[in-house]
Design goal:
Helix content: 25-40%
Oligomer: single chain
Shape: globular
CATH class of the largest domain: Alpha Beta
Order of helices and strands: HHEEHEEEEHHHEEHEEEEEEEHH
Distance between the termini: 52 Å
Strand order of the largest sheet: 2-1-6-5-4-3
Length: about 325
Amino acid sequence: MGGFQAEKALIRQLYDDLDSAEAGAITDVLCDKLADDYLWRGFHPFNELTNAREVAEQFWQPLRNALTHMQRRQDIFIAGRNKNDGFASTWVASMGHLMGLFDAPWLGIPPTRKMAFLRYCEFNKVEGGKITETAMFFDIPHLMMQAGVNPFPPQTAAHCVQPGPQTHNGLLYDAHDPAEGEKTRAAIDYMIDDIAKWSGGQAEPLVDELRRSWCEDMIWWGPAGIGATYTIERYAEQHSGPFRKAFRERTFNGHICTIAEGHFGGFFGWPNLTLTNHGGFMGMPATGKPGDMRVIDMYRRQGDKLAENWIFIDLLHFWNMQGVDILDRTAQVPRT
């Protein structure tokens, strides 16, 4: 059976300590678990940070001050060897929501004094009993929309606080059969390789391509500004089709980490894709400018196909490269 129990235990202890610590003690909690040559990657405006104090003071303390009585509500927790470095390193991934009472402004987003959920997905690289790298991706526009601030035109799919797996079995705290993880990784690889064959000119209907990789009742849990969509036909209509129309020039930059365990798997890049916006996207006009997409994708496999996909895209960074500062516009957008 697969292991990674020591690495999982380290991350679970970090979460227990971090989530229970007073704001002023967060730096000490992180220092206890992070390596000296640590690298933290987070969405715009945080980007790359390189030590525990920076991460505590710039990200965790302001967030905890804004979302009081914070709870971590995990939906997926897995570990595995990283395909992208020849299976040399071990990473642990956690996905869910950070829930709290939105009591103070954060990044200029006005507080509501009501419950709010920050979607997150985090990958942690563990080496020698310490965390050496973290990718912490979070859906800032989703929090904006909960606060009544809509930073984008109406999205093509649905805005919702997203649930975890339909099967409710995504928390893999114990060891699991490595063969199941290999099947999951193979399903993810097949889907990505199939997309890579797309040239923009073939006559094959998009839904026929998707059916090779996806269950008919697949769910694509996309980021706020795009939204979530259900079934192959609606996914093609509400995201995949518009995305391909907007971005006919796409450069795949590769992934930093790809892991799978059991029926779950995922990857992240920094950036994964560089795209040129020729067709307009998310209700915003075409710019003709290239932009980077930093993405985490998490998947649930059912049989030999993919059934659910949770996606985190640094849309603030992408649109900033297009000349639109979404955070700067926040103060100018009336609350609904």
